[in-house]
Amino acid sequence: MKQAKCFSDRHYEIGKIDDKIYASFTEHLGRCIYSGIYEPGHPESDEEGFRKDVVEIIKDLNLSLIRYPGGNFVSCYDWHDGIGPKEDRPKRMEYAWSSIETNEFGIDEFCRWAKKAGIEPMIAVNLGTGNIKDAGDLVEYCNHPGGTYWSDLRIQNGSREPYNIKYWCLGNEMEGGWQAGHLSAQDYAKKAKEAAKIMKWVDPEIKLVACGSSYEMLPTYMEWDRHMLTELYDYVDYVSTHNYTMNEGQGLTDYLASYRQLDRHIKNSAKVIDYVKAKNHFEKDMKICLDEWNVWNFQDIKLDSLDDLQTLTTFEMTSAKRWETAPGILEEKYSILDAVVLGGLGISLLNNADTVEIACLAQLVNVIAPITTVRNGGIFTQTIFEPFSMLSKYGRGTTMLARTEAPTYSSVYGELTIVEPAVVYNEEEDEVRLFVLNCDQDDEVELSIELQNYGNKKVKKHLILANDDLNLQNTIDMPGHVKMKETDVESETKVMLPKLSWNVIILG
User: Fold this and answer.
1) Active-site residues: which are they?
2) Does pLDDT of 439 surpass 90?
3) Can you state the angle between helices 336-350 and 385-394, rounded to 10 degrees?
């Protein structure tokens, strides 16, 4: 048995946790929309075709925000195709994923679904093949009360009250060669600035997210951000970044340590923001929108190396047949190991609460998602549902500075302690919530918790995600196979962390 200590003092904060870090993402990709959140004729669907079992199950995630409609999809998407009578909507070739898009689900359906689910929409506009006027028209359609062409058309289409969408993304991954309408940083900044001007003329209250770097492997990594932000800083409110954690070619040790890669990625983005702000004497602070993140093991992707991502089209990376409607692609089967790793990523998010204000788990249903549905059938949660739901439930309040004393191990990210904590103080409940990843592959770890200036706090709950079988999965036949388990509390100040585990400890 190994021993470790975690120290935290109430006087030392990292930052207030914004509710918007518990957000998600939906894209017209695979079965995320069609037979995911929308499946007319399904026994669990309502009068609008929205699956009520999906809405019910996502309540446990307590999501604040949801991004739509893409993703790579948005860069070829004409939002006009998805409004008006469904029988009049055109079927289109969807280039990003080489699928057929029926357009029976569009912006109106999404906003009505989001309202039923109790989640605030965040909309991405097409700055790939789309133009700046279309972006402004979409804001008018969604947010203007009435008396103009586009707002009156929304009313005609059944939504009298405006949607009042506050958060808008200026395109998606525009630095990537796989993106339709891919632009240089300079050209993107010029186009995004003009779109931003029009969109804020239509509605000055909206908040805009500019595309930042999405893949560290690209030669433009962070240089893109520097050039783009120099032009856009005064016109936008957030910089996006994307980060997918892959177990491709990594050993177990480095996979468990992936939280450090996410931490580094976030800090790199924040450093560039600070540099541009200082260099150009900008006044306002700017936060990060991590609007795509997840564990993604490329189970449905054909790659000789990760370098292929730079040259292949998105469809060529999948094993699906071309030109199908809602093909079942990128449907990851997550293990308990993946769930433990995702819990570690959540710890990195909490420990960067001072810079990350929005974070969208990609995606919500079926496509690299915590929820899986069966066409005309049932529903179950993937293993990654567990840590995300625990983070969303208990990770509210303020992230506190934590210091750790523990044995170390070597990883591709350097020398790391075997335990990685995030400490959250919830003032409303007067509780300290401790999230801890134990990366030790051989031993359990006795963790001593030392708190100062929080009052007399004692361990009152300990939840564990762990199993000797790291390949354990949930399935439609065993939907609750992997669950967080509560263990007996035997000490006021110490807990036992099983090997290769993710833990939630509540002190009050």
Assistant:
1) 173, 292
2) yes
3) 30
